[in-house]
Write a structure and sequence with these properties.
Elements (H helix, E strand, L loop, with lengths): L1 E6 L3 H15 L3 E5 L10 H4 L4 E6 L7 E6 L8 E3 L9 E6 L2 E7 L7 H18 L4 E7 L23 H11 L3 E3 H5 L26 E6 H4 L2 E6 L11 E5 L26
Parallel strand pairs: 1-2, 7-8
Antiparallel strand pairs: 1-12, 2-4, 3-4, 5-6, 6-7, 8-10, 9-10, 11-12
Helix pairs in contact: 3-4
C-alpha cells in the first residue's frame, strides 16, 4: 500500500502537479491539505479522480482537506466522515473494514493559539478512541515540529508557535496512542527531514525548514512499512509530499478475511 500526504497550499494552483504525482506514483491513498476550495470549485481533473473514491472537504480561501482511495485497492466505497471537533474543514477520515485513514490539517495557531490547542486535544481523543478498534493511518500537516531537531538550527525558538513545549507534548500524546512516526522509523538520525520551508531567501533550496508533515501509522501497520520519504524536489507548494510504502497483502487492505488456502495435495502428504 502506497500512501502520500501533501499540503498543496491551494488545489487550484497545484491540480496539475497532483495529477502528475498520481500518474507517476499510482498511490493507493492520496491525502491532501490546505486545498482552499469548496468541492464545487475543485478542478474537474481532480474532483472525480479516475479510479479513485474521492472526498473533498473544504471552503473558499483557506484550510480544507481531501482523501482519495484507489478503487482497485478498496473495491467497496469507504465510509467518509469527519469528527465532531472539526469546525474548519480540517480533518476527513475514510474507513474500510477495520482500516481507517485520516487527512489532517492542524491550525498553525499564529492567530488563535487556543484554537490550535483545542484541535490537538480533539485529535488526541480521536486517536485514543481508535487505538483498539482500527488499523489507523493519520497523515497530514500537523503544524508542530515534533523535536528540536525537526527545525533547522538557525530557526529554532522554543517560544515560537509550532515549537512550544505544550504543542509538542500534545503531539507526543497523539503518537503515544499506538502510533509510529514512519519518517523517524526509517531516518532515526537524520536532522534534515524538513517538509516545509518559508518561501523566501532560497530556504527550500538550502533545506532550511521545519518538519511539519507526517505519516503516523498504528503499530501493526508500521511493522509492515518499508519506506517513508519526503520529496523536497517536487512541486511548487511550500510543503513537500511525504510518501510511505507498506507491504500489506491485498486482502488486508480493507480488513477482509484471509482467503482460504486450498487443501494440500494428498499425494504430497508425508505418511507418518
Amino acid at each position: 500500500m502506497k500512501i502520500v500526504t501533501w499540503n498543496v497550499n491551494g488545489i487550484r494552483a497545484r491540480s496539475t502537479e497532483v495529477v502528475q504525482w498520481v500518474e507517476r506514483e499510482q498511490p493507493d491513498v492520496v491525502s491532501l491539505q490546505e486545498i482552499k476550495s469548496p468541492p464545487e470549485q475543485v478542478p474537474a481533473t481532480l474532483c472525480a479522480l479516475p479510479g479513485y473514491w474521492s472526498f473533498w472537504h473544504g471552503h473558499k480561501g483557506y484550510s480544507g482537506v481531501a482523501l482519495q482511495l484507489r478503487k482497485e485497492t478498496f473495491p467497496g466505497r469507504p465510509l467518509f466522515s469527519h469528527p465532531d471537533f472539526d469546525h474548519e474543514t480540517r480533518i476527513v477520515t475514510a474507513r474500510a473494514g477495520d482500516f481507517e485513514v485520516a487527512s489532517v490539517y492542524v491550525p498553525n495557531g499564529n492567530k488563535d493559539f487556543a484554537a490550535k490547542l483545542r484541535f490537538l486535544e480533539g485529535l488526541e481523543q480521536f486517536t485514543a478512541q481508535r487505538q483498539a478498534a482500527t488499523r489507523l493511518v493519520l497523515c497530514g500537516d500537523l503544524n508542530v515540529a515534533r523535536e528540536e531537531r525537526d527545525v533547522h538550527p538557525v530557526l529554532r525558538n522554543p517560544e515560537q508557535v509550532g515549537q512550544t513545549a505544550h504543542e509538542r507534548e500534545l503531539l507526543e500524546k497523539i503518537i503515544g496512542h499506538g502510533l509510529v512516526d514512519l519518517s523517524r522509523k526509517f531516518f532515526p538520525d537524520d536532522d534534515r527531514l524538513f517538509t516545509w520551508w518559508a518561501p523566501w531567501r532560497n530556504m527550500r533550496q538550502r533545506n532550511m525548514g521545519w518538519r511539519l508533515d507526517y505519516v503516523l501509522a498504528s503499530e501493526p501497520l508500521a511493522a509492515k512499512a518499508t519506506a517513508c520519504t519526503s520529496h523536497r524536489e517536487f512541486g511548487t507548494s511550500d510543503h513537500a509530499p511525504v510518501q510511505a510504502l507498506l507491504e500489506i497483502p491485498a486482502w488486508q487492505y480493507a480488513g477482509q478475511p484471509e482467503p482460504e488456502q486450498p487443501p494440500p495435495d494428498p499425494g504430497q502428504l508425508k505418511l507418518l
